[in-house]
Amino acid sequence: MAEVAIGGILTGCIGCMVTVEILTKGYARIALVFFVVNVSNNLALRYDVSIPLFIIFHSGTLLANVLLGFCLRNRIYSWGKLLSIVFISAGVILFTLADHFSKHSKEEDEKSVQPLSIFHSCSGIFLLVLAALLSAYLGICQEDLHCTYGNHSQEAMFFIHVLSLPGFLFFYNDIRQAVIHFNNSDILFIFGLRFPIPSLWVYMILNCIFQWICIANVHTLISLTTSLNVAVIITLRKFLSMVLSVILFGNPFTFMHCVGCLFVLLGTVAFTSCDFKFKFALKKNV
């Protein structure tokens, strides 16, 4: 989590050297929500929440965005757009479950089942629900911010990540243990050549670079379009990464995978066609 904030600082500084267009007050609430979302997602994994369940709740951000948009901003979407969002979410869920079932047989699942307290499991699910709702709320807040103060994506990225950094002091022990673990990792080998660098540090640096690129593009998108459109794009990006992981790692591609892909494809086409019809109607009225 900390590397995401550092990447935001390095990128955002480029736009902040000249002027600060958006008032600092506008970022405090967003930075707080951003921090709580990241912490909730990470803490949920400590409560025996499986990765498939984690991904499923992440895909629920689309539905949460529609719900909060209606409750907080009185936004009403067409039935076509609502159905397209349901199709995309259902497709991601089906694909995730198919990937999970193809990797774990019934015998392995029975062996892995352990009596866990209901409270322990519910705590992780509660954190995932909280993170999904706050993620949708975060997108709406960022959309409002750009509508009020103008489009300054690099500046927004800088302040949101800088203001969230002090919160990581509460996780100092976790960060310190992670640093020790990274330092004790295996030495890096590339094409048979030995480099005196712990391999995990190299992987983390690469992860930081890709996180940096991804977050910078997300902030640019938020400044250009609605939070729902951004949520759809992010969901499709996550779905594409799952498809590539199945293909690249040679995992079986079952009928359930195909159904999930079909649902996502139909939902995406329906969603984009709704926007196209809306823009066409606006031009016709003008």
UniProtKB/TrEMBL annotation:
It comes from the Eukaryota. Its main location: membrane. It is found in: Membrane. GO terms for molecular function: UDP-N-acetylglucosamine transmembrane transporter activity; UDP-xylose transmembrane transporter activity. The chain crosses the membrane at residues 6-23, 53-72, 79-98, 118-138, 158-175, 254-274. GO terms for cellular component: endoplasmic reticulum membrane; Golgi membrane. It is a multi-pass membrane protein. Keywords: Membrane, Transmembrane, Transmembrane helix, Transport. The keyword Membrane applies. PANTHER family: SOLUTE CARRIER FAMILY 35 MEMBER B, UAA TRANSPORTER. This is Sugar phosphate transporter domain-containing protein.
